[in-house]
Amino acid sequence: MWNHFWEPIQLSITVTIAASIVVIITGTMLGYLFARKAFKLKLLLETLFMLPLVLPPSVIGFLLIVLFGNQSIFGKWIKAIFGQSLIFTWYAAVIAASVVAFPLMFQTAKAGFQAIYKGIEEAAIDLGANSKQVFFRVSLPLAKKALLAGCILSGTRALGEFGATLMFAGNIPGVTQTVPTAIYMAIDNGNMFLAWAWVITMMGLSFILIYIVRSKEN
Predict the structure, then answer these.
(1) CA nearest neighbour of 105 among 201, 214, 185, 31
(2) pLDDT of 110-123, one tens digit each?
(3) Cα–Cα distances in angstroms (integers) from residue 156 to residues 4, 98, 186, 202, 211, in the given order
(4) What is the pTM of this model?
(5) Structural domains for the chain
(6) pLDDT over 70 at 217, yes or no
(7) Is 45 exposed, middle or buried (0-12, 13-18, 19+ CB in 10 A)?
(8) What is the dihedral of CA 148, 46, 156, 143, to 10 degrees?
(9) How far is CA 160 from CA 4, 100, 129, 174, 176, in A?
């Protein structure tokens, strides 16, 4: 029983960590770009980035299947290189979690960078710093509270992802079954004790992560 209990938790944590790495890097870089640069199609792209916040998870899962399914260009390319389909693997769970968590990191990072007084960055440039040095030594440290909040919030969202993951990665015990899908199956099978155990675990993990964000704000 305990092996069955811990497997979804271990997989959820693994998926969350992998998705968080992807989201933190892409969300921070794109957040900085959109906070500092003006270019054509900026509003259109930003709207596209934020869509996962409002789209039903089933729609996201469907779009991921269309993009990475066996009949798609990307799907055939992945299968030719790696010898297997992306769908119904834990990598699919990582992609689904990354897609739904990205808007939170992107928007929080963008807001954090926008809050920085541009004169500080300009002063660093006047003192001889290049754009890379300004980003890593000035912008990132000044936006660290917003970035930390984005990391925790997007990580929590990735941890709780259900709908898109179920459609794109499936619900294979020991392979793609995360805690949210395991709870769904436990309730469907009438195993309320196991469902409650996973629910309490998820509530505990989410509470800790959100508490960290709130403690950093005060």
Answers:
(1) 31
(2) 999 999 988 888 88
(3) 23, 11, 22, 10, 11
(4) 0.90
(5) 2-217 (1.10.3720.10)
(6) no
(7) middle
(8) 0
(9) 19, 10, 41, 18, 14
